[in-house]
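Deliverable D4.2, example record:
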Amino acid sequence: MRILKTAAILVVGALALTGCTTDTLSAQFRAGSDKNYIAGDGSVTEIAVANRGKPVTFSGTTETGKPVSSSDYAGSVLVVNFWYAGCAPCRIEASDLQALSQKYASKGASFLGVNLYDSAATALGFETNYRVTYPSVIDRNTGSVLLAFSGTVPPKSTPTTIVLDKKGRVAARILGPISDQTTLDTLIKTALAETN
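Output generated by the structure prediction step:
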């Protein structure tokens, strides 16, 4: 009987603690425990225009079943964010990415997510919860979009954010979560200002 009472107290206590936080993975990430993902350090790689390779070409299907390809973004800057729903830093940076996507929606820059592991339903649930309005390719079955970037500056951790210039070439990469909007904002502005 004493064992049952102790077990009941532990269960009630655990439930109470669960109610205190809304996102345990984000809390783990902030605490630096690095559970359930490979963390990037937020380092930025910029590639000079003269050193950029060929345009990255890809195609896939979004979480809503719509076909999408690199040609859809020809002539504009494209920010590609690799993510998945169980990734704590992906959750933390979602609002910053969404804010920047809104800021540049009519200024020549678009955003596209690439979900590496989730089903379409899970991706849609994440987007609803975090109010993300730009589309994401569901890449878990083919890995084709991830593969398309592997020859230039591969996403070595999740999240990774890559800025493609107006010709579809990799201009910059942020390996790991964006710490705030400033760095990515500057990279987008730089790519938009380029004339070659």
